[in-house]
Design a protein that fits this description.
about 120 residues; mainly alpha; two-stranded antiparallel ribbon; two-stranded antiparallel sheet; elongated; IFI6/IFI27-like_sf; membrane; transmembrane; transmembrane helix
């Protein structure tokens, strides 16, 4: 009986117990929780890196980059200028100013949700 209580105590110390509406408990392993947290962090960190790699930088659009090609195509399509609110303008704004707190929260939430779905299969 004593070993069972010790095992139960160890399990609850390395697992998070979530109460479900029915009153039963679902035990989530620490590895699954870590996967969800890491998914959120990766999503928040990846977006600025991808924007920079595409050429949307704080100094403007980098020459000979994917961003430059996108800007050229948008300018040709709009008769010589990039329309405000377009995809290119929005991405450049994000590249120049960074992500707002709300955007980081949304990206973290989405990244965590995707990681949670993936973690269910492992």
């Amino acid at each position: 009986m004593e070993a069972s209580a010790l095992t139960s105590s160890a399990v609850t110390s390395v697992a998070k117990v979530v109460r479900v509406a029915s009153g039963s408990a679902v035990v989530l392993p620490l590895a699954r929780i870590a996967t969800v947290v890491i998914g959120g962090v990766v999503a928040m960190a990846a977006v600025p890196m991808v924007l920079s790699a595409m050429g949307f930088t704080a100094a403007g659009i980098a020459s000979s980059s994917i961003a430059a090609k996108m800007m050229s195509a948008a300018a040709i399509a709009n008769g010589g200028g990039v329309a405000s609110g377009s995809l290119v303008a929005t991405l450049q704004s994000l590249g120049a100013t960074g992500l707002s707190g709300l955007t980081k929260f949304i990206l973290g939430f989405i990244g965590s949700a995707i990681a949670a779905v993936i973690a269910r299969f492992y």
